[in-house]
Structures are given as structure tokens and as C-alpha cells.
Amino acid sequence: MEENSKYKELLNREGIKSTRHRNAILKLLEESEFPQTAEQLYITLREKTASIDLSTVYRTLDTFASKSLVLKSNRVDDGKALYELNHNEHKHHLLCVGCHKLISIEDCPIGELKQTLKNKIDFDITGHKLEIYGYCHDCKKYKLPPSDHDNL
Amino acid sequence: MEENSKYKELLNREGIKSTRHRNAILKLLEESEFPQTAEQLYITLREKTASIDLSTVYRTLDTFASKSLVLKSNRVDDGKALYELNHNEHKHHLLCVGCHKLISIEDCPIGELKQTLKNKIDFDITGHKLEIYGYCHDCKKYKLPPSDHDNL
DNA sequence: TCACCAAATGCAACTGCCTTGCATTTGCAT
DNA sequence: ATGCAAATGCAAGGCAGTTGCATTTGGTGA
After folding, report:
1. Which nucleotide has the least CA–C1' distance to A39?
2. Fold identical between B2-85 and B92-151?
3. What is the mean pLDDT of chain B?
4. Is the CB of A4 within 7 Å of strand D?
5. What are residue A92's DSSP bridge partners?
6. Domain B92-151 has what CATH class?
7. Taking the domains of chain A in order of start, what are their residue ranges?
8. Dist CA A137 CA B97 (whole Å)
9. Which listed CATH number (3.40.50.2300, 1.10.580.10, 1.10.10.10, 2.40.50.1020) goes with B2-85?
10. Of B110, B117, B149, which has the smallest distance from its Cβ to A126's Cβ?
């Protein structure tokens, strides 16, 4: 299968072995629309491919993160770790507080701030993280009165 | 002591009892320059005031958070919960990756994004969180080559 | 192709953060 | 003062994630 050779090449480039599990996890992440928890990935892997241990999933994801192949973050509401493929593109996420859907966006408002801060207080921005909460199209109709999320 | 009566009033306004522990935690949060973990608060409380149980600290902080008296967030690197007093002011922080100094700013770039996202994908923003990394004036001279922080 | 070795994996036990159940204590209204 | 709901302490438990160790596997060199 030529898909696996693609992963193999990618992994070799990072100086780590290409294994059945690693290829499967890369493939799964590639197919995932949203960042996934380790457990979500674990369950899916057990369903569709061979047996795998949860610790292997964690170890693999950590290895990938250390090589910058995947990006690790923490879910806002429960602090669980989320993993997604690193496409090396700059993006942010919208979290719907209604259905917990995560939507990726390319818009980034940091540009002008960068210059403002440089002028105002001589601070050089090298990175940032922006999390946005709100209600998606589907959840607006069920919108609840303002809650804790409004303070974030 | 009249400081406690200030806390008592605050707590009564939220419809919850004023207790020794609650007053102490409010006071401690008021004195804290940065968001604290539950354990940091716990340790400090044990040192300077009477005995308190860790579960009480957690329960108190959760209660305060549910009343919006404190803001709860998750530390970026290890996902631990952080608690800080809610001053109801909108602000963000600059984290200097050189000296780990935390600088508060009032600038917020979310305004235009709000309208953009509403038009583009029908998403209603209710809140957001922005963390900015970089080098402060003092650390610029020692600036290191780009690191992990640049991906955040 | 084979044999070897470091790296990867499975399994089970364990850690750390946080939560919960329950008996006791405390704040506050009456 | 007294009674009751709310708060607390204590101990046990839950859950995400980690680790130690024996076994298996991928890749390299003969």
C-alpha cells in the first residue's frame, strides 16, 4: 500500500521507526476533522484496525508532538489533552459551548496587535494561542442565557 | 476585622455563607499577582492560616467559579487548573518566554473578528481567551532562536 | 536472507489531580 | 439559645495519563 510508504517516509525523516500503529495513528489524524482526545483515537483504532494499547497511543502521540508532527493542546472545559496533525498552518478554533463542536478558522487578529505592542511596550510577540467560545449556527436557537463562558 | 466584613458582604450578595475558609481564600486570591493552582493556594493557606483540607479548597474554588467570583482556566503546559479573582475587566496577558514575567494588557483584537465570523460562518462569539508569548524589553537582547513556543 | 539490537509495544501497576460520600461542625435565621 | 441547611474534614474513589518491565518488532549490517 502506497499510503503507508508516505507515512514511512515522513517518520524516517524524523528519525523514528515506521510501525503499524504509528502509521494507523497518522492516518487517523489525517482523516480527523477536529482535534481528538487520546481515548477517542484509541477507541477508533480498536474498532477499525488491530488491537492497540492505550499507553501506546499516548506514547505515540507524545513522540509525534515532540517531533512537531502533531500539536497537543488542552480542551477548555475539562482540560483533557487534544491532538491534531500539525499542518504548519496558522489557525485557531471556535468552540461551540452548545454542542462542543470545534471549528477551525484561518482568521487571526494578532497582526495589528503585534505592531501595537512593539511600539507601546517594546514586546516582541513570537507566538500566541487564541480560543474562542460561542454558539454555532445549529446551537443558536437553543441559546441559553449568558453563563460562565462569557467571562473567558 | 473589617476586611472580613467586606468578604462577607460579597459572599452574601452571591447568596452563600461567609466562612473562615472562604474569607481566607478570597483574601489570598486578592493578594495573588498571578493565577494560582488549587494546591498552591492550599499550601499557602496551611502555612499562614489554620488547617484546611484540599477538598475544601477545590469545592470553594468551584463554588466561587460558579458565582463568577473567580475565573478558572487551564495552564498551557500541564493542563492544571488555575484560579484567579474575577475583576470583571477584560484583559490579556503577555508571557515573556525569557524571564516568565506576565504583563497585563488591555488591548484586545477580537472586535472585528466577531463580526467577520458572524457573517462568514454564522458563529456568535460569547467569550475568548488569548495568550501571547514573546520577549519583553529586557529579554530581547538574550533572545534565543525560535522554539516550541512559536507553535502555540 | 538472517541475525542482531535498539526501539516499540502490551500489560499491569501506579501517580497525580480532582471528586465524592458521609459523618461532623458551623453559620445564620428565628 | 436552638435548629437546620450549608460547609467542612476525612477517607475512599475516579479518571487521565505515566511508568517499569518483559516481549515483540523494524531496520541495519553481515
Report:
1. D16
2. no
3. 85
4. no
5. A105
6. alpha beta
7. 1-88, 89-152
8. 38
9. 1.10.10.10
10. B149
Q: Which residues of chain A have pLDDT under 50?
A: 1, 144-152
User: How much is the pLDDT for B142?
Assistant: 67
Q: Report the pLDDT value the prediction gives residue B145, as an integer from 0 to 100.
A: 47
pLDDT value of position A143: 58
A2-41: pLDDT as tens digits: 567 889 999 999 999 999 999 999 999 999 988 999 999 9
- Which of B 69-128 lie inside 8 A of A, CB atoms? 71, 73-74, 76, 79-81, 86, 88, 94, 96-97, 103, 105, 107, 109-113, 116-117, 120-128
Q: How many CA atoms lie within 13 A of A22 on its CB side?
A: 21
* 3-state SS, residue A59: helix
The count of other CB atoms within 10 Å of the CB of residue A2 is 5
- Please state which CATH number belongs to domain A89-152: 3.30.1490.190
Q: If DSSP codes are grouped into helix, strand and coil, which group holds residue A50?
A: coil
C-alpha cell at B105: 494588557
- What confidence tens digit (pLDDT) does each residue in B109-147 have? 888 888 888 899 999 988 888 888 888 888 887 654 444
Q: Comparing B136 with B2, which gets the higher pLDDT?
A: B136
